[in-house]
Amino acid sequence: METLAATASSLAMLAAVALAGGGVWLVAKRRNRKQGVLMLVAAAVLLANVLIWTL
């Protein structure tokens, strides 16, 4: 894998982890459930993109 592709997938994984953590926190604290669910969906989409890029 080239350097740019490896960097992009690493950043996408970090963003997915941050989105998932923030989404779980928002849903668990019942602060803004809709935004939390959307963050979890965005994390799942990023994870799927990384899986597609690496296959």
Strand content: under 5%
How would the global form be characterised?
elongated
Beta strands, count: 0
Tell me the span between the first and last alpha carbons.
11 Å
Q: If you compute it from the alpha carbons, what radius of gyration comes out, rounded to the nearest whole angstrom? A: 13 Å
- Report the mean per-residue pLDDT as an integer: 94
The major β-sheet equals: none
Q: Given the helix and strand composition, which structural class is it? A: mainly alpha
Number of domains: 1
How much helical structure, as a percent, in the residues? over 70%
Structure annotation, total helices: 2
Spans where pLDDT lies below 50 across 5 or more residues: none
SSE pattern? HH
Please summarize what this structure is:
The chain has 55 residues and is mostly helical.
Write up what this structure looks like.
- The chain has 55 residues and is mainly alpha-helical.
- The chain has one domain.
- It is 87% helix and 0% strand.
- The longest helix has 26 residues, at 3-28.
- The model has no long low-confidence stretch (mean pLDDT 94).
Topology overview:
Elements: H1 3-28, H2 33-54
Give descriptors for this structure:
55 residues; mainly alpha; 2 helices; 0% strand
